[in-house]
From TrEMBL:
It comes from the Eukaryota. It is an enzyme of class 3 (hydrolase). InterPro entries: RNase_H, RNaseH-like_sf, RNaseH_domain, RNaseH_sf. Its EC number is 3.1.26.4. Belongs to the RNase H family. Residues 74-205 form the RNase H type-1 domain. Keywords: Endonuclease, Hydrolase, Metal-binding, Nuclease. This is ribonuclease H. It comes from Orchesella dallaii.
Length: 359
């Protein structure tokens, strides 16, 4: 939807035009209303022009920097340090330019929606624009501690709008001047870099006047907002759904962390874990409900109904295994809910309760 919206292909008519089945269009439009970020101007990917920028990118290793120490240049060289910073939910960019014994500082507040990467790129762009008055033939060195920003300006692949604009500014500056873009390690005490870092923090703390976004929204921010909204909706649906009584007893809310773990499991382990968590297993409690067992009483301790919670937290016959694997002799449902799924699976397997099923 986001891609269609920003490429102008999104159907946004009230009656959905000629569409017979408009459910997806409607659902997506409703989603768009809940995430304002989707409608904001987007820092989308654009094709990079197949031209040389005319500037040089240099990536000295950390070892080289350790040996070389802080960069030294004579007064004829224009030296510029750039940095981006995010602090207390707002972003800022900065550039500190030194030339002929004079120092110029640029502070660019970027509001709440800009990412640090965007700030790093914008810092370089503003520095390049500010240096356009420098006479031709001058050597200019711009130091940035963002490898990804320099790499993005160097690569022949696709770039975003902001990277494209920065590339054009650098290209214009490099005309008849010698321009180098050099990576410098951050937080190792290099004076110019530390100063730019401080100024970027100040810029991040400055008040921004005007509506957000100050810069087009990064695709990463859009993806993240959609992911957060989808997780919220999933949790709401999970809470309002009346079924899955046993699963709800053992799982609090949907979790991407747990899902990501489960999809790494082999088929047998995933089946075992799902059976225990949903209660649809060969435990007596379930078999009795399905009229496949005469009794629902636990065949091991013979005390109480054999449910998933009984096996995981209560059955006396698995006290030692529980203590070894889960570090507790008994567990309540609330305690089971906070245990890592990997530990629960380990306990289920170590208990040997389901070994008979597979034989
Ligand atoms: Zn038992």
């Amino acid at each position: 939807m986001h891609r269609l919206w920003h490429s102008g292909a999104w159907i946004d008519r009230g009656d959905y035009g000629y569409l017979q089945r408009s459910n997806h269009v409607k659902a997506n439009r409703d989603m768009g209303k809940k995430i304002p970020l989707i409608a904001w101007p987007c820092d989308r990917r654009v094709s990079r022009p197949l031209v040389e920028g005319g500037f040089k990118t240099v990536f000295p290793s950390r070892k080289v920097w350790e040996q070389k120490g802080s960069p030294q240049h004579d007064d004829s060289v224009v030296v510029c340090y750039t940095d981006g910073s995010r602090h207390d939910g707002s972003t800022g960019a900065a550039a500190v330019i030194s030339w002929n014994g004079e120092k110029t500082t640029l502070r660019i507040p970027l509001g709440a929606s800009a990412t640090v990467f965007q700030a790093e790129v914008l810092a370089i762009r503003h520095a390049a624009d500010a240096l356009r008055h420098v006479p031709t033939g001058t050597r200019i060195v711009i130091y940035s501690d963002s490898k990804s920003a320099i790499q993005a300006l160097k690569t022949w692949n696709y770039m975003t709008l902001l990277v494209g604009e920065c590339f054009q500014s650098l290209k214009a500056l490099a005309t008849e001047r010698t321009l180098e873009l050099v990576w410098i390690p951050a937080h190792v005490g290099f004076e110019g870099n530390e100063e730019a870092d401080e100024v970027a923090k100040e810029a991040a703390g400055m008040t921004v006047y005007g509506p957000e976004p100050i810069v087009p929204v990064a695709m990463a921010s859009v993806r993240s907002a959609i992911r957060v909204k989808a997780a919220e909706q999933h949790t709401d649906m999970w809470r309002s759904y009346n079924g899955a009584r046993q699963t709800k007893e053992l799982i609090d809310v949907p979790s991407m962390r747990v899902s990501n773990y489960l999809v790494t499991l082999c088929r047998q382990d995933l089946r075992l874990f799902t059976q225990v968590i949903t209660g649809h297993s060969t435990l007596r409690g379930h078999l009795h409900r399905m009229r496949k067992a005469d009794s629902d009483v636990c065949p091991f301790c013979e005390v109480g109904r054999e449910t998933s919670l009984h096996l995981l937290g209560r059955c006396d016959c698995f006290l030692t295994t529980r203590l070894d694997v889960l570090e507790s002799q008994t567990l309540s449902a609330a305690e089971v809910r906070v245990i890592k799924p990997a530990s629960l699976l380990k306990f289920i397997k170590c208990s040997g309760r389901f070994t008979l099923d597979t034989q």
